[in-house]
């Protein structure tokens, strides 16, 4: 779909191609008395708006995407520049700025416009990946001066963009006050993305990437999200996201605080290995997060200011998340703010005008008749022109840098950086040093100075670590750039570890990670591990969306120790009071020296608890994740057992297997269960430890779908339009609706609770995503579009066997398929000869034919109440 990468049922509203229930742009503010909202541009100019960005001076750049999420034909997208000449809240002029396909993110910075978009071959017309590019408009005519300049190429999975479209590809972009561009990567991940310096990166799965505006120094910021769509960045470089669901597979919409180097666990750690991840701050149920912004503008009401604003396309709502400090992280409370039909993105200008884009039912391939832009301002808002920073003196730029507007600070900062002279550096340093100024202003000055001074500013930045207010940010700035990291002293970071502030401690650990000095390993090993570091009990799911401030510092220390490859220090620490942290780090280090060292420690120890922890660590090391080559993807509801998705043996595997078998033999029959459980949990697949799989017999419903659809009740005798009109006037009885759900065959392919076996599209959250009209039309027209991840698939396997249905589970070893009759088949991956997605939905039309209007209304009402 558009700029975003959405998940199945959270995506279903979009896929069903329904006629929008917002035929004209309609908005509702919550509370409406606080804001004035105007229709800025309609579908005649901005159909299918996937993303937008606003220049500080008020020009709105909109990414129109007529390909949508699953479309595959190029030549249907462009960036429009919209202008409101009289500042009355309505567009007066629009200019075609540039032609691009699948625009997914935009940043406007001076004369530069950064765009993330899908690329296509001119010869084959097929997708070739995604690029982050920059256009320039130096003459100010509203059009790009020439062709785009690539900054990062191949930043998503070419194979799956070509086969599926951009539904799980790379998404929104935003710049922080530190001058980095932060990029939201969907769980297609990427293979051999290359920046302008020639640096290459590969990432299995989703997370956040960042790069300098010149296209260099590309690096992974965080990892382990599903479909993070966009980021909100506050003045202190806290990064927030509202992510997307995996259709009843346990990963709901979640609000997260992203801490550099953190692992967030999707898809293989977030259920059974929750002790190893940074958990989300909240599980928000169904929906699909889209655009994001941290609002920090002085003319907005205080209660709507200094907050992350996060769009949810599935819920057609802009949310405010009120965050409260909690050690090195936060807790949050979310609340509804502005209702907008399938909201896609938002941004604010230097005068405080908030612009929002709405997909408005434009369908999975975009629509020329749907989509619009609105403007929202506080009721007491008055227009105040934002200056052209290129024309400002250093003195005037300094005044802007000291503003209480985040837009003003960022644009002043970047203009000072672009001037790159002694006067600019001096004014930034003076701003950072002035203790009478607000902290966000001083932070802006510090990061501006760091960008200008580079390695020449190291000594000054180190001095700022003595300033209690700026210590955290000085540490971040000192370790921010790998290009001269070797010249940065280690002492400020070691001192920071002793600070009373957990935020300073976190910045120190992250900095030590980036400095890459293995000699600090013993200091990192002293990080305390809290009692909450406990693996989930067998058969239970861990707390992966509950704030846990205590786990942040040891988590970051482990990430640093692994990055430092501190094998000797870690093995030595196994015999000390720091063994828990050491073994936590060692479980990620597939190194034969590690294996042999652990076995030696086991043999020398008399501590039975420690010995058991060593066995668990060896079990984890028995296999490792296969090297990612972008030839595969785990799908929309992947196997989340963990700890790996595609596990393979390596050089240390035979040594581990031999040792575990020997110890199991010594343990005898009474101790065997430990090895059986270890084998199952770590998925080692050692035959001697295998436990016979006991599959509980379940009585699947026997439904005669042909019989059902051949009956002709009131619904079957009427047009779809008449049915929709009729049920819109009927409330229906949800209790009767549940019975109808069972009797009409819905239960054969859909589950309602996460405790049930997952089947096809999950209905347990449908009411939080679709309204009654949309649910009704999806029942009446199941092939209008196919729910993401649940296309009908035909598999031909060895033995001349053919299967047709939808995939309910897939691992590296097997595919589990369910056909329309509810029959379940497990097919070994090695037996599959061919696999093809079919164009038509497996769900036949006519399943509601036998119902009366009242009965269909009851079914729809029942489904609309499913909001778990």
TrEMBL record:
Residues 732-867 form the Cytochrome c domain. The keyword S-adenosyl-L-methionine does not apply. Keywords: Heme, Iron, Metal-binding. SUPFAM superfamilies: ARM repeat, Cytochrome c, Soluble quinoprotein glucose dehydrogenase. The keyword Signal does not apply. This is Cytochrome c domain-containing protein. It comes from Pedobacter jeongneungensis. The lineage of its organism: Bacteria, Pseudomonadati, Bacteroidota, Sphingobacteriia, Sphingobacteriales.
């Amino acid at each position: 779909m558009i700029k975003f990468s959405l998940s199945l049922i959270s995506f279903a509203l979009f896929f069903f191609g329904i006629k929008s229930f917002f035929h004209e742009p309609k908005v509702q503010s919550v509370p409406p008395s606080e804001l004035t909202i105007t229709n800025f541009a309609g579908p005649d100019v901005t159909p299918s708006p996937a993303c937008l960005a606003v220049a500080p001076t008020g020009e709105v750049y909109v990414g129109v995407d007529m390909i949508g999420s699953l479309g595959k034909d190029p030549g249907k997208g462009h960036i429009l520049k919209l202008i409101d000449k009289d500042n009355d809240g309505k567009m007066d002029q629009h200019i075609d700025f540039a032609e691009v396909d699948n625009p997914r993110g935009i940043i406007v910075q001076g004369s530069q416009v950064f765009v993330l978009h899908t690329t296509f071959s001119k010869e084959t017309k097929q997708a070739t990946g995604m690029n982050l590019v920059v256009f320039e408009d130096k003459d100010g005519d509203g059009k790009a001066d020439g062709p785009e300049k690539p900054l990062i190429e191949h930043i998503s999975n070419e194979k799956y963009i070509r086969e599926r479209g951009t539904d799980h590809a790379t998404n929104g972009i935003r710049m922080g006050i530190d001058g980095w561009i932060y990029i939201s990567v969907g769980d297609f991940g990427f293979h051999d993305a290359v920046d302008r310096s020639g640096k290459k990166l590969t990432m299995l799965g989703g997370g956040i990437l960042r790069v300098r505006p010149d296209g260099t120094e590309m690096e992974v910021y965080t990892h382990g999200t599903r479909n993070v769509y966009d980021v909100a960045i506050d003045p202190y470089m806290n990064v927030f996201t509202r992510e997307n669901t995996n259709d009843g597979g346990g990963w709901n919409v979640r609000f997260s605080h992203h801490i550099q180097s953190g692992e967030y666990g999707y898809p293989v750690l977030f259920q059974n290995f929750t002790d190893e991840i940074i958990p989300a701050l909240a599980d928000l149920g169904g929906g699909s997060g889209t655009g994001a912004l941290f609002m920090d503008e002085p003319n907005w009401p205080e209660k709507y200011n200094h907050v992350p604003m996060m769009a949810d396309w599935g819920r057609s709502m802009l949310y405010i998340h009120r965050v409260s400090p909690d050690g090195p992280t936060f807790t949050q409370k979310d609340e509804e703010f502005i209702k907008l039909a399938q909201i896609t993105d938002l941004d604010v200008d230097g005068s405080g005008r908030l612009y929002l884009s709405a997909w408005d039912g434009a369908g999975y391939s975009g629509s020329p008749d749907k989509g619009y832009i609105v403007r929202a301002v506080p009721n007491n808002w008055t227009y105040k022109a934002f200056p052209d920073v290129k024309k400002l003196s250093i003195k005037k730029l300094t005044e802007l840098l000291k503003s209480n507007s985040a837009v003003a600070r960022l644009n002043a900062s970047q203009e000072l950086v672009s001037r790159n002279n002694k006067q600019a550096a001096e004014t930034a340093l003076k701003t950072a040093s002035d203790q009478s100024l607000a902290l966000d202003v001083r932070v802006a000055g510090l990061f501006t100075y760091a960008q200008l001074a580079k390695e020449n500013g190291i000594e000054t930045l180190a001095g700022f670590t003595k300033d209690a207010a700026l210590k955290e940010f000085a540490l971040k700035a000192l370790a921010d750039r790998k290009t001269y990291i070797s010249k940065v002293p280690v002492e400020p970071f070691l001192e920071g570890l002793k600070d009373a502030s957990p935020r300073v401690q976190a910045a120190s650990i992250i900095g030590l990670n980036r400095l890459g000095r293995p000699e600090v390993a013993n200091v990192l090993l002293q990080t305390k591990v809290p009692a909450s570091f406990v693996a989930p009990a067998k058969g239970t799911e861990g707390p992966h969306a509950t704030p846990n401030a205590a786990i942040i510092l040891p988590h970051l220390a482990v990430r640093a120790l692994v990055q430092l490859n501190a094998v000797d220090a870690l093995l030595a620490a196994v015999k000390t009071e720091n063994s828990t942290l050491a073994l936590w780090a060692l479980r990620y280090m597939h190194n034969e020296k590690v294996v042999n060292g652990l076995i030696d420690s086991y043999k020398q120890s008399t501590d039975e608890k420690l010995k058991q922890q060593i066995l668990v660590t060896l079990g984890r090391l028995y296999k490792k994740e296969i090297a990612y080559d972008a030839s595969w993807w785990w799908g929309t509801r992947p196997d989340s057992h963990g700890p790996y998705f595609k596990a393979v043996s390596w050089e240390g595997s035979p040594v581990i297997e031999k040792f575990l078998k020997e110890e199991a033999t010594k343990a005898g029959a009474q101790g065997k269960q430990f090895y059986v459980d270890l084998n199952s949990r770590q998925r080692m697949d050692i035959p001697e430890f295998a436990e016979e799989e006991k599959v509980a017999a379940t009585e699947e419903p026997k439904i005669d779908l042909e019989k059902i659809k051949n009956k002709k009740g009131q619904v079957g005798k009427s047009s779809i339009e008449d049915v929709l009109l009729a049920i819109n006037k009927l409330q229906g009885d949800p209790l009767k609706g549940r019975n109808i759900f069972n009797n009409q065959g819905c239960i054969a392919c859909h589950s309602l609770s996460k405790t049930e076996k997952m089947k096809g599209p999950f209905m347990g959250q449908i009411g939080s995503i679709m309204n009654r009209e949309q649910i009704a039309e999806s029942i009446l027209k199941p092939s209008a579009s196919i729910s993401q991840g649940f296309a009908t698939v035909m598999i031909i396997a060895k033995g001349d066997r053919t299967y047709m249905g939808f995939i309910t589970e897939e691992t590296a070893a097997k595919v589990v398929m369910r056909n329309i009759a509810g029959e379940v088949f497990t097919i070994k991956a090695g037996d599959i000869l061919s696999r093809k997605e079919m164009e038509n939905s497996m769900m036949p039309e006519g399943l509601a034919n036998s119902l009366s209007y009242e009965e269909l209304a009851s079914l729809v009402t029942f489904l609309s109440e499913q909001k778990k």
